[in-house]
From TrEMBL:
It catalyses: Hydrolyzes the link between N-acetylmuramoyl residues and L-amino acid residues in certain cell-wall glycopeptides. It is an enzyme of class 3 (hydrolase). One of its GO terms (molecular function) is N-acetylmuramoyl-L-alanine amidase activity. GO terms for biological process: cell wall organization; peptidoglycan catabolic process; peptidoglycan turnover. Gene3D superfamilies: Peptidoglycan recognition protein-like (3.40.80.10). Keywords: Cell wall biogenesis/degradation, Hydrolase. Its EC number is 3.5.1.28. SUPFAM superfamilies: N-acetylmuramoyl-L-alanine amidase-like. This is N-acetylmuramoyl-L-alanine amidase. CDD domains: PGRP (cd06583). It comes from Rhodococcus rhodnii.
Length: 359
């Protein structure tokens, strides 16, 4: 598979309006090999507009995504080569920290808080559906930057439930009309391990009154329209809540009202292998990625610049191992986070340094 020089005709065949920037077919950071799918973004720009040229010729990144999508639902082809848009991150099937090489990026003109107009959301769905059909991929091959890049603290595309978005993309690919879906029920269906539902009604949660929660036998499922619905697993009965459980760890940070906010990805069980010192579990939230080792009294979360650097070092399988503290400030204005085998120090200059044990 080569560069997606077919993007414009494929999108136009789907009934979408597409403009092309001069030089788009010669712009990029090298050529694609096999393309895994699509990475969805928002630009972070406020109304009324954001120039696609900024995506094509970003001052520090160069080509920052292949496509720009305006608020009015118009696509602009910015380049067809590899773009620097993914950064550090992970997702099943994608090389860790190497999403740029396998993902087509779409930068939608949105500040992440304004909501999504019918014109823009509809074009986003139809455009992704057309691209995935051309690639021969399913609806599962579109993910949000907030899903892939949670370790960086990414939250784009803001205000978009990616599970619902994937469902809408699938409907568009099959030519079916959109149907009303209860996303908590949908989350329980794709995660049968949660067990029996323990409440018939949905409980209102969150400061804005838009969140919903339902307890199940083995997890609580939380929903917010900006992120979707995800289960947070309870403690392992063999270890108890004092030594396991992401839900219990999250509760210690005041659930969705605390610094972590709502869950944004499914949890992952981490086995004791591939360099890990011990087993545990991990789940991404709006405010960071929460880790808890089996046997530990609490969980710790990583985020931001330190989280991005830790990811580049190999996450918990790297030389530093699992986090054993959250970030804390030093008298010099820097920020430190401790790990099993050392610490990371963010200097006010912006540099991140690795401190070995004892420094």
């Amino acid at each position: 598979m080569a560069d997606p020089i077919w993007l414009t005709p494929v999108l136009r065949d789907a009934g979408l309006t597409v403009n092309e920037l001069h030089g788009a077919y010669n712009r990029g950071h090298g050529d694609f090999g096999t393309i895994w799918g699509v990475l969805a973004h928002h630009t972070g720009s406020n109304p009324p507009s954001n120039n696609p040229n900024y995506i094509a010729n970003h001052p520090s990144l160069g080509l920052a995504s292949q496509l720009h999508l305006s608020r009015s639902g118009v696509f602009t082809l910015c380049g067809v080569g590899i773009a620097w848009h993914a950064g550090a991150g992970s997702w099943p099937g994608i090389p860790t920290n190497n999403g740029n090489q396998v993902l087509i990026g779409i930068e939608a003109e949105n500040n992440g808080r304004e909501g999504w107009s019918d014109a823009q959301y509809g074009a986003y769905v139809k455009g992704v559906a057309a691209i995935l059909k051309r690639l021969g991929r399913g609806q599962d091959r579109v993910i949000g930057h907030k899903e892939y890049g949670a370790i960086q603290g990414k939250w784009d595309p803001g205000g978009m439930d990616m599970n619902l978005f994937r469902i809408r993309v699938g409907e568009a690919m099959r030519g079916r009309p959109a149907v009303i879906i209860n996303m908590i029920d949908e989350a329980a269906g794709r995660n049968p391990w949660v067990g029996d539902r323990r409440s018939e009604r949905e409980i209102v949660v969150g400061g804005d009154g838009k969140g919903r929660m339902v307890p199940f036998a083995n997890a609580h499922i939380y929903f917010h329209p900006s992120v979707g619905a995800f289960p947070v697993p309870h403690a392992d009965p063999a270890l108890g809540p004092e030594k396991s459980g992401l839900f219990e760890a999250w509760a210690s940070y005041n659930y969705e009202r605390g610094p972590l906010g709502y869950p944004v990805r499914e949890f992952t069980r981490l086995e004791k292998r591939d360099g890990r010192s011990t087993a545990g579990a991990v789940q991404a939230f709006q405010g960071g990625v929460l880790y808890r080792r089996d046997g530990d009294a609490r969980g710790w979360f990583v985020t931001g610049v330190i989280g991005e650097r830790w990811a580049a070092e190999g996450y918990e399988k790297g030389p530093l191992g699992y986090p054993v503290s959250n970030e804390y400030k030093r008298p010099d204005g820097g920020v430190v986070q401790d790990f099993e085998h050392g610490s990371m120090y963010w200097d006010p200059s912006g540099a991140v340094k690795i401190l070995t044990e004892g420094e």
